[in-house]
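Before going further, learn to read the protein records used in this course. Taken together, the tokens spell out the fold as the letters spell out the chain. A record is reproduced here so that you can trace the correspondence yourselves:

***
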Amino acid sequence: MRIVDLLKKESIDLTGTAPDKQSAIAHLVDLMAASGNLLDKDAYGKCVLAREEEGSTGIGEGVAIPHAKTAAVGKPGLAAMVAPAGIEFDSMDGEPARLFFLIAAPEGGENVHLEVLSRLSRMLMNVDFYDALMTANTPDEFLKYIDDAETAMLAEEAPQEEAPADVAAAPAQDRPFVIAVTACPTGIAHTYMAAEALENKGKAMDIDIKVETNGSGGVRNTLTAEDIERAVGVIVAADKNVPIQRFSGKKVLFVKVAAGIKEPEALIQQILQGDVPVFQGSGTTDEEVTAGSANESVGRQIYKHLMNGVSHMLPFVIGGGIMIALAFLFDMENAGTAQFGSGTPLAAFLKNIGGLSFSMMMPILAGYIAMSIGERPALMPGIVGGFLATTGGSGFFGALFAGFIGGYLIIGLNKVFSKLPRSLEGTKPILLFPVVGLILMGIIMTFIINPPTSVFNHWLADTLGGMSTSSRVILGLILGGMMSIDFGGPINKAAYVFGTASLMSADGAAISSGIMASVMIGGMVPPIAIALCTLFFKHKFTKKERQSCVTNFIMGASFITEGAIPFAAADPIHVIPACTIGSAVAGALSMVFNCTLPAPHGGIFVFGVVTNWPMYLAALAIGSVVACIVLGVIKKNAVEEA
């Protein structure tokens, strides 16, 4: 497969313009859709924007390669745009981007196209190739430049005949040997661009270098034990987890993948000068790390560890919560009695398995926070710490403490046990970490964390329960608004995690929560409000935007706030404030009407178990209408594309 097999003339724009990054991506997505590669253009566009939130795909030197690998793609494809005037794209060098390639990769199936896309990424590191594409006058000429450059690269990669015996090659051992690993979250573009930059710079510096790429197509150019033994140092340029325990005892430089693209010479020079610490490892045989974390702020690292725990916890919370909600739904005949929720065999069954799943919430949260910090050896102490938090009365906050304590406990133990003889290295993950870690976790949680945190939990529960109506309304106002500020970002997640935590009482029992009700209704408003706005303020939206009306109604009703993301990305100044106001109104009204919810998800499908559900529905309608009206008033009229 060649690059020209993925890039069609109808997906090339040589005179592109756009006022900003979001508009540029929207235009590229339209170009991609013109080739017929997409199954769901809107969903694909959302994935491209989500990838940008992880880090800009503007690699610098005027080039940007936005991309997404998703089920919304029917077949692999490319779209290209030349923007002579340049577009601000948050590029690594701070300069505008002028040459864009948008990549669409389908999930699953054959990955032959990934090799082609990696080849394009490496070609774009060539200045002459970039200049040729920028001067192309027609799509046919543009494609010819690509085809010629690809042919030349394939020729270089083809196996070469062995040199005659009388031609002496420079002994490889006479030059320094550096090894590297590159990886990015999607594994399509940046992985290979960093590898190309490091390899090219290595040749220019007259050193031997071997780069292992950890991309979507799998691991390529794998580093052998001999490579690792011979190397003077290792560069790990990665934004996702890669195996690094094999480098234990070597000098390892951890950086983000962007640094591999932007400053390969500085990285190689640092390795050659030996100004890099020796990596000790943790004693596990399959340790992985996100190398980019070395340069992250403390706040960012804490957030990343917390989200790792939350993402693993949510299936237990959502599954268990909805099972409990269904138990009440199928036991309405016993409503108001002590048996409500378990008065029939079906209800009792649902409540039992739901409660069991729900009881795993704190241990899983703590375990995976710990694992994010201290890798696999920290999982067991974290989980046990989470159980101790649940049984000891410290609940959600205690589990948070347990997760971070468990992770850093293992890191500390690893340093303590680093003095052990090499012959005892294998006992660390299977004996020392579990036993010593468990003892210390038990002592810390039982005697240090649980007593004060349990007191705080009961105080918080009493405070929330004794809140005046005005105080509860303010709380609902804030939580509802938080759900619509960043649509799935840190603020949204903070409100949602607070809501799910409120579903468990201080003594660990599942309860119906007014806080969770405000959080869910706040998240339902944005898509519904936008759908209403496309109906009643049609002139504010393009024809394509109006076509998403039904989809947004469904997503809003299902508590999928992300349905508003494309609109917020296209017009954040008007969409975000309007949705935030509407969500805040709905969250406040939910508190006014004393609505409570026992499930952490489900949208309109769990309204049957909401306390005072008719008024809860009214609060949702009022909040959505308020957001709709505000958006309809402040949003500018749409300009239809020609």
